[in-house]
Amino acid sequence: MVPYRGIRRSLLFVPGESERKFQHALKTAADGIIFDLEDSVAAHLKPVARKQVNRLLKTSDFAGKERLVRINPLSSGLTEQDIEETIAGRPHTYVIPKVSVPEDIQQIDRILERNEDKYGFPLGSTGLLVIVAETPASMLYLREIAASSTRITGFTWGNEDLITALGGKKIRDDAGELIPLFHIVRSFALLTAVSFNIDPLDAVYANFKDLTGLSKEAQDAADLGYIGKIAIHPDQINPINRHFEISDEEIAEARELVEAFEVARANGQNTFAFKGGMVDEPHYTRAMKLLKRADRLKNRMKF
């Protein structure tokens, strides 16, 4: 069975032990909610968080939102327990942090398969959203990680853990812009995801009070080809959604271009004038991708 591939303009993190924040998240326009069992949950609260996440997954009306759980990394020794104690709630997707090599994903794939079999779920139906670039090694294995499992439906990238691992001092310059290293990381994560038909999701913007900076970064990501962005605060959702939405005008122009291109191609032309410019195959491909995304926005998958 193919894992969930709904619309992902915005995915919002909530601490796994906080039902209050979860209920607030449900009222936002986020396309998905990520229950966090990792960084935002203190060690002594992780058992409580697992039980609560499982209960909320089973009993809550998500109104079409994607249901995700970020588990602890394999190095923590908690990964298998995180999955075993939450999979009965049937999350669409597990978010996998601190991946270094493809074998990490393959190990998690096997854990999921055992648990899907245990509960009678279709094998391969649980998806993975992989956080790349949280370890230096992962940047050397992006292609292999992307190819390591058919469960992978999304890539996002991290910066805080990477700068810590590198022993660096800052992620952004004095103007608030990402330093050059993270532009490289961001670009390679995007290129790899698109090459493997994986959803590329931009990294979190940590300063949740700076909605101007968030909006600029979200627009930059959308211009590059990212389809959405991870959020850490409800106030970030509307600005993010706005930049990853597709307007009626964009849809209409894409349809017009596709129709014109197909007529031209039928007449033996692969290049022709369209609205004052020359268009060819890449323009057609880009328009088709836009229409496909628009269809995903319009028709959320139910699961």
From TrEMBL:
InterPro entries recorded: Aldolase/citrate-lyase_domain (IPR005000), Citrate_lyase_beta/mcl1/mcl2 (IPR011206), Pyrv/PenolPyrv_kinase-like_dom (IPR015813), Pyrv_kinase-like_dom_sf (IPR040442)
Positions annotated to bind substrate: R70, E134
Cofactor(s) named in the record: Mg(2+)
Chain sites annotated for binding Mg(2+): E134, D161
Molecular function (Gene Ontology), one example: magnesium ion binding
SUPFAM superfamilies per UniProt: Phosphoenolpyruvate/pyruvate domain (SSF51621)
Protein known as: Citryl-CoA lyase
Natural source organism: Aneurinibacillus danicus
